[in-house]
Design brief:
This protein is elongated. By secondary structure, the chain is α+β, with helices and mostly antiparallel strands. The strands form four sheets. Strands 1, 2, 3, 4, 7, 10, 11, 12 and 13 form a nine-stranded mixed beta sheet that branches. The protein contains eight helices and 18 strands. A hairpin with a 3-residue loop joins strand 10 and strand 11. It folds into three domains: 88 residues, Pseudouridine synthase (2-Layer Sandwich); 133 residues, Pseudouridine synthase; 63 residues, Archaeosine Trna-guanine Transglycosylase, Chain: A, domain 4, CATH 2.30.130. This is tRNA pseudouridine synthase B. Its EC number is 5.4.99.25. Responsible for synthesis of pseudouridine from uracil-55 in the psi GC loop of transfer RNAs. Belongs to the pseudouridine synthase TruB family. Type 1 subfamily. It catalyses: uridine(55) in tRNA = pseudouridine(55) in tRNA.
């Protein structure tokens, strides 16, 4: 006999404003408890020190969360000059101090131009990447250092917001896999004085921005479950970038039973994924199998009921 999953069948996407001091998983679990949700997952970790946008997927939305892992992201960070830490941020131990030259905004801008576009970046030891089944930060805490291959990432924009004597604020839009801590360290190295970050806030992930984010405190203040579920975005927002196909009831029945169906795919190419709807209800994703045929790819469990 299958075990019944504890909790409520909550479905949707929460734009959570993660607080500082909590890991992404702890923030996720607190949100899950607030919603009494059976199933939840997040779409890319934030360091405990970092704050800001952490999309949390509940229920059926977890099936489509991988689409956000590939998304571009926007961050705002404070770069502290003159001190290098073992973690690349203010939570680490200072391993070297250097004199900070008198810098002007044109000085910073001149260096930033070298970090815009496609660059190579070596992932930090204090990261969740794995080596032989173990997370790098676990090895780093044991005093071990593993050679890491450089990765190609893209910094679409890096904009200087303000400059103080030994620190500056930076806003960056980057591709997946870009470490802002490493970007700041590399900029500090290029300036000749070293650097680490003392604050980091994520402002956007893919189509989602900080507008509409809710803190855990704001969620706790809502009077009940209906009010909490009302703040969730629908499941299909995660795949809104894919083309949309309308199917009739007959095709919907076949698709939800795992069979290909006759559907006019229009100008979509064979192998292309699309969102499927029947009577405005989201069914899930299909893949074009031919000019007049679509096969199921990933469907909502509720679509087959």
């Amino acid at each position: 006999m299958a075990r019944r999953r504890r909790g409520l069948p909550v479905n949707g996407v929460l734009l959570l404003d993660k607080p500082a001091g909590l890991s992404s998983n702890h923030a996720l679990q607190r949100a899950r408890r607030l919603f009494q949700a059976q199933k939840a997952g997040h779409t890319g970790t934030l360091d405990p020190m970092a704050t800001g946008l952490l999309p949390v997927c509940f229920g059926e939305a977890t099936k489509f969360s991988a689409h956000l892992l590939e998304a571009d992201k926007v961050y705002r960070t404070r770069v502290e000059l003159g001190a290098i830490t073992d973690t690349g941020d203010a939570e680490g131990e200072v391993v070297e101090r250097r004199k900070v030259p008198r810098l002007t905004e044109p000085d910073i801008e001149g260096v930033l131009t070298r970090f815009r576009g496609e660059i190579e970046q070596v992932p930090p030891m204090y990261s969740a990447l794995k080596h032989q089944g173990r997370k790098l930060y676990e090895l780093a805490r044991e005093g071990k250092s593993i050679e890491r291959a450089a990765r190609r990432v893209t910094v679409y924009d890096a904009r200087l917001l303000s400059l103080a004597d030994t620190a500056f604020d930076l806003e960056a839009r980057v591709s997946k896999g870009t470490y802002i801590r490493t970007l700041a360290e590399d900029i500090g190295q290029a300036l000749g004085c070293g650097a680490h970050i003392s604050a980091l806030r994520r402002l956007a992930t893919g189509p989602f921005t900080s507008e509409g984010m809710l803190t855990l405190d704001a969620l706790e203040a809502l009077p009940g479950q209906p009010e909490r579920e009302a703040v969730l975005l629908p499941v299909d927002v995660l795949v809104d970038h894919l083309p949309r196909l309308e199917v009739d009831a007959t095709a919907a029945s076949r698709l939800t039973h795992g069979q290909p169906a006759q559907v006019d795919a229009g100008e979509l190419a064979e192998g292309e994924a699309a969102r499927l709807y029947c009577d405005e209800a989201f069914l899930g994703l299909g893949v074009v199998a031919g000019p007049q045929e679509v096969a199921p790819k990933r469907l909502l469990s509720s679509a087959a009921e």
